[in-house]
Amino acid sequence: MNKVYTIFSEVLKLVPRYHFDKAVETHGAERYVKSFSTWSHFIAMLYSQMTGKDSLRDIETGLQTQSSRWYHLGFSGIHRSTLADANARRDYRVFEDTFYKLLDRCRDLTPKHRFRFKNPLYSIDATTIDLCLSMFQWAKFRTTKGAIKMHCLYDHSGALPTFITVSDGKKHDVRAVKENDFPLTPDSIVSIDKAYVDFKWLKSLQDQGIWFVTRAKRNIDCAVVGQHEPKGKGILSDERIAMQGPLTKTHYPEELRLIRFRDEERNKTLVFLTNNFKLAAITIAQIYKSRWQIELFFKWIKQNLKIKSFLGTSKNAVLTQVWVAMSYYLLLSYIKYQTKYGNSLLQLSRVIRETLFERRNLIDILTLNPDRLLVMRDQSTQGSLF
What we know:
The chain has helices spanning 7-12, 17-26, 38-51, 56-64, 80-89, 93-107, 173-179, 199-207, 248-251, 281-290, 292-304, 315-339, 345-354, 362-366, 370-383; strands at residues 121-131, 146-155, 160-168, 189-192, 211-215, 222-228, 235-243, 256-263, 268-274. Helices cover 42% and strands 18% of the residues.
């Protein structure tokens, strides 16, 4: 007879345990630990993301009420003081490594982006997460405010965050990408906001064989050296340019492409800058427009994951929560693509939250409609009263 585990247990099976334990060993996360293992730590933090718990007391109470169903989780119990100490002291890089191992699994399942070209398509952007300066003094942003910044490389194939780095709120966006090795491969296309227009960095992308699409700044100093016939709806001009500024022409001595596009929906003229001379001008405009998907991604994680209110005030506690939250996002994505779940990630997260400790198969839960889920939960609750 096949055993039926809880939904929580089935989700945890998707975490590569061998690599998780390897990360624990690499970062010495179990050094001087007597009882509260790193795996139990991960389970508790993942539970807080799944259920939207806002405090250590809520996490402790919620898990203790389900103590009869721990045996499939490998969970050893919890006290809020122990969890607080673990968040403050256990190296967050264990959970960062777990995120990237989960990412490797997701990449094999994701659908391709919607464009006809086969080049990998990425966007780079950053989002600011506000913090209370009096509690997070290490994250000083302005005189009276605290903040951290999440810098992200977003893969349009599968809507996945393929690289994340977290900095203090004062770090400029382009400085973050220059200081970190964003994993862009040759022949890929990256869409960036004009905040990232640094011609020295753009030249480094060109030297690596990476195509970029961005917005040109208003004061761009350039000379037109050639023109193409503007083709495509909304395309006003398509020009080859050379930089003329004393520094910019030194940092970027090669020709660039300048495209003026009229966006009728927004009643605005946009000017795009790219080093790609092969794709149609209208495709370049559409690539930049697709960059807004990363903005939707930031909006989604801020609204549906616990990365705006934190369970600890130390930098390690904040980063631990961020990496566990992003790992949960990947777990949801993996389940959606593996099972070909037809609804949104939000609906999937709600289904999992409502059935987390039910003894059901995950694939069966995903095929039930909301009304049937409520009936199933009521039956389970009635059975537990006797």
